[in-house]
Amino acid sequence: MKQETRIRHWTVADTSTVSKAAKEVGSRIDIKLARSIRMRGENNSMYGKKHSAETLRKMRVAQLGKKQSAESNRKNRLWQLNNPCKVFSNTTIEQAIAKALTNKNVVFRQNVNLLNIANVDFYLQEYRIAIQCDGCYWHGCPAHFPERVRAYDKLQDAALARCGINVVRFWEHDIRENSQQLIDSLI
Ligand SMILES: [Zn+2]
C-alpha cells in the first residue's frame, strides 16, 4: 500500500530527475523543491478537495501552544533578513531622509542587511551609522502609540552596537516635520 502511494508521487518524470541530480550534488534545498513540485496539482492527495471546517479547527487547535525550536527561529529570522518586506521599503519618510542625506553629500546605501542582525533602512559606512526610519504605528512611538512597545528593536540596536555600529532611529512624525534638521544634527 505504502509503495503504491510512493509510485503515484513519482509520476512527474522531470522532477524525479531534478531530485536525483540534487542528491548527487547533495543539495537539500533542491531535493525539497523537487518534492514540492512533485506534490503539486493533481499529484497532491488533496487535489480538488477541501478540508472541512471541523478539520481546519482541529489543525488550528493542534498548533496551539506549540513553540518553535531555537534553530527554526534562527532560520526564520535569517529568511526574513534576506527577504525584506518590499511593501514598506522606500516609503515617503525614507525618501525624505534619502533627500536630506543627498543634500549633505553623504554616501549611503539603502535596505542593507547588516551582519545578519538587522535590515537597516540606511547605512552610512563612512560613519558606521545605521539609520532606521520608524513608523509611528509599527514601532509604537510614545507620542502617538505608547501602548505598542517594541522590545525587539532595542535588542537589534544593542547587537549592532556590540559590532561597532551606531543605530540612529528617527520617528515618522519627526521626519515628516523636518527631515533635513534631523540629518543636520546627526552629521
Ligand atoms: Zn509618532
List the topology elements.
Blueprint: H1 2-9, H2 13-25, H3 28-38, H4 53-63, H5 70-82, H6 92-103, E1 109-114, E2 118-124, E3 129-134, H7 136-139, H8 151-162, E4 166-171, H9 172-186
Parallel strand pairs: 3-4
Antiparallel strand pairs: 1-2, 2-3
Helix pairs in contact: 2-3, 6-9
Zinc ion is lined by residues 136, 141, 143-144, 171-173.
Please explain how this structure is put together.
This protein is of the alpha+beta class. 53% of the residues lie in helices and 13% in strands. The chain contains nine helices and four strands; from the N terminus they run H-H-H-H-H-H-E-E-E-H-H-E-H. The protein has a four-stranded mixed sheet with strand order 1-2-3-4, with helices on both faces. It is elongated, with a radius of gyration of 24 Å. The model is unreliable at 1-13 (pLDDT under 50).
| Number of discrete domains | 2
**Total DSSP helices:** 9
CATH class of the largest domain: Alpha Beta
CATH architectural type of the largest domain: 3-Layer(aba) Sandwich
| Helix and strand element order | HHHHHHEEEHHEH
Radius of gyration, taken over Cα atoms and rounded to an integer in Å: 24 Å
Strand line-up across the major sheet: 1-2-3-4
Query: How much of the polypeptide forms β-strand, as a percent range?
Result: 5-15%
Instruction: Flag low-confidence runs.
Output: 1-13
User: Residue share in helices?
Assistant: 40-55%
Characterize the main sheet.
4 strands, mixed
Describe the global form. Answer: elongated
Output the CATH homologous superfamily of the largest domain. Answer: VSR Endonuclease
The rounded distance between the terminal residues' Cα atoms is 71 Å
Averaged pLDDT, please? Answer: 81
